[in-house]
Design brief:
alpha/beta; 243 residues; Rossmann fold; 9 strands; 23% strand; two-stranded antiparallel ribbon
Length: 243
């Protein structure tokens, strides 16, 4: 399970869960406890990653970058396989949650930093695999952001994204202005979306063309089984780009 000793008593763990919640990812913890994951999309994504994506990546012995890691659920799971994982997010509260979960699970091969996608550069080092899960369609400057990530990625990139299904065979990006997130929608998201944001939602062809433009010669779309709820409509998919 963990890589180090358990630093929390059950009572202390419960206090930290209450203080730092709500969490975006569901993570199993010692003493039979679990974070208060409240997003069906992220539950479905984790199931899809475990069944369809992890086997394609062979993370053993690899360096992994998890972009927009949120509370660190994916990074912590990858750290059970990879040599080293760096999770980054622009929200300090998410990084605080991730550091707590890292300690609770005793994971030593993972690190978390507060960092924007646009500030990623080679000072971080390079990574065999970069994970971009649920972030592409939020970006105001998707080409710039993805170029930053591609520049530090030596082997593979995984992009899991919401798609605009109206133009699947065209390299199409739909501009979208989203207002402030309300607590009733997803309490965790209010930490970063407290004002109006500009976003670009891609078609499937746009994701594929962008990854090839950024130097990933092979791009494969991995569709999960239709019974994984959030992917059922076909407006969400995963792409793996390989150098």
């Amino acid at each position: 399970m963990g890589d180090g000793p358990q630093p929390y008593t059950e009572e202390a763990l419960r206090r930290e869960l209450e203080r730092l919640g709500p969490f975006h990812h569901e993570v199993d913890l010692p003493f039979g406890l679990r974070t208060s994951g409240n997003s069906a999309s992220d539950r479905d994504r984790m199931n899809h990653l475990r069944v369809n994506v992890w086997p394609e990546l062979s993370l053993e012995g690899r360096r992994v970058l998890d972009v927009a890691c949120n509370c660190g659920g994916v990074a912590l799971e990858a750290a059970g396989r990879a040599e080293y994982v760096l999770g980054i997010d622009v929200v300090e509260r998410y990084i605080e949650q991730a550091e707590f979960l890292k300690r609770a699970l005793g994971r030593e091969r993972v690190e978390f930093r507060t960092l924007a996608v646009e500030d990623v550069d080679v000072s971080l080092g390079t990574f065999d695999v970069s994970l971009c899960l649920g972030i592409l369609y939020h970006l105001e400057n998707p080409v710039l952001g993805m170029r930053r990530i591609a520049d530090v990625t030596t082997s593979m990139i995984v992009v899991d994204s919401r798609l605009d299904p109206k133009h699947p065979y065209q390299p199409y990006w739909r501009m979208n202005f989203k207002g402030p997130q309300t607590s009733g929608e997803n309490p965790s998201n209010t930490l970063w979306r407290d004002g109006t944001v500009c976003q670009f939602m891609p078609s499937a062809r746009a994701v594929e063309d962008l990854l090839r433009f950024l130097g990933f010669r092979s791009v494969e779309r991995i569709d999960p089984a239709r019974d994984i709820g959030y992917y059922r409509k076909g407006d969400w998919a995963t792409f793996i780009g390989k150098r």
